[in-house]
Design goal:
Largest sheet of chain B: 6 strands, parallel
Strand content of chain A: under 5%
Number of helices of chain A: 5
Strand order of the largest sheet of chain B: 9-8-10-11-12-13
Largest sheet of chain A: none
Number of domains of chain B: 4
Helix content of chain A: over 70%
Radius of gyration of chain A: 17 Å
Shape of chain A: elongated
Structural class of chain B: alpha/beta
Distance between the termini of chain B: 79 Å
Radius of gyration of chain B: 29 Å
Number of helices of chain B: 27
Number of strands of chain B: 20
Number of domains of chain A: 1
Largest interface: A-B, 20 and 23 residues
Strand content of chain B: 5-15%
Structural class of chain A: mainly alpha
Oligomer: heterodimer
């Protein structure tokens, strides 16, 4: 299956494809880094680990912003209904962020690690897969 | 179900803890949860102590992360028990199963321990680890490592802030301190000072022995300068002042972590006050009879730690003076010197006899030994009267006998008499309490002795099995006769005494006890301004989890370290320099540029 587009849509789709290609690589990197952080956070509370965690969360936040933009762009496409399912897995991100925040604030590092390792990471793996598939059909 | 089984095991191993756990009320902040894999987890307030998805996998990760440290350590200290998943994984390591490596867990929350015992079968863990819930630190072997269960550490922040510095000091002590041992100019405590210095060296400490016997001739020459006591006293005071100043000068140069002083060492009050003013910890071992020598009253308050060979009434007096840091530390033997020897025929002729005594001719001994004149008796040592009934038994006209020959005599004699000195009694002091060094020394040689009964003896030896006591002259004579006719029994008892000394009564044991006591009583190494730094302290200051801390841990084996030691290691290494290594190289460069000019 390929999305049919014409005129200005082609330009938009190309721009989105470039963004998605970049995001695929970044998603994996962010996921792996956060997974490492979550493992370390269970055994080590050093400045380095917390810095890496903050860095990872900031990068993830940027990525989520990009996905939101991407979604907005996609919504302008005629065949949006066909691409929408590939991005739906990212919707869960907000819920996980919501759960992570109180854990972070109360220094409940085990809960935070659990959320990253068992919720966020699989979700990022799924999200990356969705992006790859989306890239193929665009 | 689990709780009953666990608590039964704990009752046999640590009844006090078991009782405390049984009495512990459940904390309001505790919430037991079930993890996604079905295992129990727990939250205390906002802090989750174990994964809510897979606590076992998390515990495996904890052990995996610390594996290298565990493998290098002789003992593992774990800060935080929680529900014990990580401790269980630690105990299941093959290394823990096959070795007798100590595992000590600090967990202040009795209610959490109770919950742990309710939720899982921890019988093996309880039999394998020692759990500490208070502020006390149990004896820990050298080379231990400290691992933290991070969520428990977050939960018990205040408790661990009290425990960590204690462990840090224990680690510094175990890794080796710089100890200055100050001995007397002469007297019975002089060899003891030497044994202590050597024992501390054997234990890995950096020892600086101030052997003041070098001043012996000068000290004794004072009496030849003037016959007037007032002048002699003045000269002796000046001389003590000189020796004190010499110790202080040396101390400023060598920068010890502890000054350990033996009885009769010539340190004056002003010197000790200066040590105190500079926060240099001092300890004193009063290896004398407090009833005979009363100078302890003047010196005891000047030391940070005071050790005695007597208790009971002496302790009462020290308490009355307001002293707190004092402890009983009996005498001992030094097996490098006091040992079994193969005695040649010639030596046996010289040193051997049925009955033998080595020591000074104190009043009670002179009287008591008159009752042994019909034996093949040899008396060795000074201060005996040649023109007395004992005269023909006194060897070498009462010359001083050195340690080497003393050991030969102990080994060669069939029965060594050990009569503690007494100034006011005809024979045995019926109130004698402390045990003299000779008791341990003869025993360490594997030689047989008959010793007058002392009230402290039963705590040190099994009387009748490891050592034989006499209570009066008749009793002694009976026992001499019996043991001269039963050499097999003599040897058996002597062997048991030797084993006991090697197990419990060497100077290394005493120095270990001394250091354990001072650590318990809040010892902290002084902060000398020095180029040499304690590696473990540096790692702790940098933080074990930091890049610098991890880098420094490669020097863990060294007691102290300088910047040059680090840069030499870097220069000898391979590959590209890390950021940390670059910084050290830079520090070295700075040091080189700004080092003071030699004049």
């Amino acid at each position: 299956m390929r999305i049919a587009c014409e005129g200005k849509e082609i330009e938009l789709v190309n721009a989105m494809k470039n963004g998605i290609t970049e995001a695929i690589g970044i998603t994996k990197e962010i996921g792996d880094r956060l997974l490492d952080c979550s493992c370390l956070l269970r055994v080590e509370h050093s400045e380095e680990v917390f810095n890496a965690l903050l860095g990872g969360i900031n990068n993830l936040s940027d990525l989520v912003d990009f996905i939101k933009e991407l979604k907005r762009g996609m919504e302008t496409l005629k065949d949006y209904s066909q691409v929408e399912p590939f991005l739906s897995s990212w919707d869960g991100s907000l819920k996980i962020f919501e759960d992570m925040l109180p854990a972070f604030e109360s220094k409940d590092w085990i809960t935070l690690s659990d959320l990253i390792q068992y919720e966020l990471h699989p979700f990022l793996v799924e999200g990356e897969k969705g992006l790859s598939e989306l890239n193929e059909i665009l | 179900m689990f709780f009953e089984k666990n608590i039964e095991v704990l009752k046999t191993l640590n009844p006090e803890l078991a009782e405390a756990i049984l009495r512990a009320p459940r904390g309001d902040d505790l919430q037991i949860l079930t993890a996604r894999n079905g295992m129990p987890s727990i939250k205390a307030g906002n802090i989750t102590l174990h994964s809510l998805y897979d606590p076992k996998e998390e515990a495996e990760g904890w052990v995996g992360y610390h594996r290298e440290e565990i493998e290098k350590a002789s003992a593992v200290i774990v800060l935080g028990f929680g529900l014990g998943y990580h401790v269980m994984e630690l105990c299941n390591l093959e290394l823990c199963r096959i070795s007798d490596m100590d595992v000590i867990v600090f967990e202040p929350r009795l209610d959490i321990l109770r919950t742990a015992l309710e939720l899982a079968d921890l019988r093996y863990v309880l039999s394998r680890v020692k759990i500490v819930t208070g502020d006390e630190c149990p004896p820990i072997s050298k080379g231990f490592t400290i691992l933290e269960h991070k969520p428990s550490a977050t939960l018990n922040l205040a408790y661990l802030e009290r425990i960590r510095p204690k462990l840090k000091v224990i680690k510094a002590v175990k890794n080796g301190l710089k100890i200055m041992v100050v001995g007397p100019i002469f007297g019975g405590s002089l060899p003891i000072a030497g044994y202590c210095a050597n024992a501390l060296r054997n234990m890995g400490h950096d020892v600086d022995f101030m052997d003041n016997s070098r001043y012996r001739d000068t000290y004794f020459s004072i009496k030849t300068i003037s016959g007037e006591k007032a002048h002699q006293d003045q000269l002796q005071a000046l001389f003590t002042s000189f020796v004190s100043e010499a110790v202080m000068a040396h101390c400023a140069e060598t920068k010890p972590d502890l000054i350990f002083v033996l009885a009769q060492a010539p340190l004056g009050e002003s010197c000790l006050l200066r040590f105190r003013a500079n926060n240099i910890p001092t300890a004193f071992w009063f290896v004398e009879d407090f009833g005979l020598m009363d100078y302890w009253q003047g010196v005891a308050p000047l030391y940070d730690y005071f050790f005695t060979i007597q208790r009971d009434k002496f302790f009462d007096k020290l308490k009355e003076m307001g002293l707190k840091n004092f402890s009983y530390l009996p005498l001992a033997a030094f097996p490098d010197v006091h040992k079994r020897l193969d005695i040649t025929e010639e030596e046996l002729t010289t040193y051997g006899s049925d009955v033998s005594f080595v020591g000074a001719g104190y009043y009670n001994r002179k009287n008591f030994f008159k009752g042994l004149l019909d034996y093949d008796l040899k008396i060795w040592g000074t201060e005996w009267e040649m023109y007395s009934p004992l005269g023909k038994h006194i060897q070498r006209s009462g010359e001083r006998i050195d340690t080497e020959e003393t050991v030969k005599i102990f080994n060669a004699a069939k029965v060594n008499i050990n009569l503690h000195s007494a100034t006011y009694y005809e024979g045995i002091n019926p109130y004698g309490d402390f045990v003299n060094p000779r008791t341990f020394e003869i025993a360490a040689c594997g030689a047989f002795q008959l010793v007058d009964y002392r009230s402290e003896l039963p705590e040190l030896f099994k009387v009748g099995e490891e050592i034989i006591c006499f209570h009066d002259l008749n009793d002694l004579r009976k026992k001499i006769n019996y043991y001269l006719s039963n050499p097999g029994e003599r040897e058996e008892i002597a062997q048991k005494a030797r084993e006991r000394v090697l197990r419990d009564h060497t100077y290394e044991h005493r120095m270990e006890d001394m250091l354990t006591f001072i650590v318990e009583r809040g010892y902290e190494p002084p902060r000398w301004k020095t180029e040499r730094e304690d590696v473990e302290m540096l790692i702790d200051e940098a933080g074990r989890d930091t890049e610098l801390g991890r880098y420094m841990s490669r020097f863990s084996g060294k007691t102290r370290i300088t910047v040059s030691d680090i840069t030499e290691e870097i220069i000898g290494g391979k590959g590209e320099l890390s950021d940390i290594e670059r910084i050290f190289m830079l520090i070295k460069e700075f040091k080189g540029q700004f080092a003071p000019m030699k004049t």
